[in-house]
Amino acid sequence: MRPIQMVDTKRQYEQIKTEVDAAIQEVLDSAAYINGKAVQDFARELSEYLGVKHTIPCANGTDALQIAMMALGLQPGDEVITPSFTYIATTEVVALLKLTPVFVEVDPQTFCMDPEALRKAITPKTKAIVPVHLYGHAAPMEEIMQIAKEHNLYVIEDNAQAIGSDYRFSDGTVKKTGTIGTIGATSFYPSKNLGAYGDGGAIFTNDDALAQQLKMVANHGQQKRYYHEVVGCNSRLDSIQAAILNIKLKKLDAYNAARQSVAAYYNDAFAGNDKITTPYVAPYSTHVYHQYTMLLNGVDRDALVAHLSEHKIPSMIYYPVPGHKQDMFKSFELPAYQLATTDWLTERVISLPVHTEMDAEQLEYITQQVLNFVNR
């Protein structure tokens, strides 16, 4: 049996090596390393795939969120509502821009923002909502967008973990996650469903004027070289990464389908076991399984992690410390949050390996070792 990885980027590369190597060589031959043709081609192709008017590539997913908030003109003290149960980048940029993070609960089944908690958290200082499509499952965007409309709020979708996921509205309309809110942001970190071989990110919008503002902020605040209209930053996707991503974009649906097959195997293996709750998929969402995250019921999680490790099976806890308990926010003098669902989840979630190169032998071995432990 091949060694088991949480994400096997090396083996995935081996399957597309000829295409990737040729694309990298083409960039090297052109010497257009920054904002070259490969970047323009990728932005256009990704816009077409997602069905969004504008794609603005940038250096990474965290930058994508920061640029979005800067382009919207959010000011120090403005409140930004976000789930606490997510990776820290979502709220890190809120703190960096001296905005005020407001943490809300998530749904215990989908792990995504709870609309009722969102509604209760809105104050006159609220300016934006940042729903996170966590683990590859969409947040309840129809309800979130309705709440945002009622209160005239911006919506910035954190789509770093769910690119390619579909959202179905109650009228039957289907849109890709990341294209529904005011702005969408994503990451191309190597382990993502659409991953580069270095850092990368992108921003999406259907608003023409906002697209120009996003481009300007990402490019030192300038539209014309050396004429800086606003305070911006320097955040670019390089041509080599864009060339790689454009090859992998054409395979994204197949990659997501492979992840869904892995998840289906796990789901079948664990079905009916009262100590394991497999990932829920809401009727409005497809799940692209950036992570396969399940809940443990009455199981010693640390002992399970150790057991899997002893048998050379990696596992991860995403995320052991929620945002509202991170030391970095102490200086903000935030209220003493009581987020019972978030705290409950942090004690019970565990993620198993899921990626495009897994085979039946590996999956059988992983599931058997999990069951051996939880059933003893």
SSE layout:
Elements: H1 9-15, H2 17-30, H3 37-50, E1 54-58, H4 61-71, E2 79-83, H5 89-96, E3 100-104, H6 115-121, E4 126-129, H7 141-151, E5 154-158, E6 166-168, E7 174-176, E8 183-187, E9 201-205, H8 208-218, E10 222-224, E11 227-228, H9 239-249, H10 252-270, E12 276-277, E13 292-296, H11 301-310, H12 340-346, E14 349-352, H13 360-374
Helix pairs in contact: 2-9, 3-9, 4-5, 4-8, 10-13
Description:
The chain is an alpha/beta fold and 376 residues long. It folds into 2 domains: 9-249, Type I PLP-dependent aspartate aminotransferase-like (Major domain) (Aspartate Aminotransferase, domain 2), CATH 3.40.640; 252-374, Aspartate Aminotransferase, domain 1, CATH 3.90.1150.10. It is 39% helix and 15% strand. The protein has 13 helices and 14 strands. A 7-stranded mixed β-sheet has the order 1-9-8-5-4-2-3, sandwiched between helices. α5 links the parallel β2 (79-83) and β3 (100-104). α4 crosses α5 (89-96). The radius of gyration is 21 Å and the shape is globular. The chain starts with 8 loop residues before the first helix and ends with a helix. The model has no long low-confidence stretch (mean pLDDT 97).
The strand order across the widest sheet is 1-9-8-5-4-2-3
CATH topology name of the largest domain, in short, is Aspartate Aminotransferase, domain 2
Number of helices: 13
Radius of gyration: 21 Å
Mean pLDDT: 97
CATH architecture of the largest domain: 3-Layer(aba) Sandwich
- Approximate helicity band: 25-40%
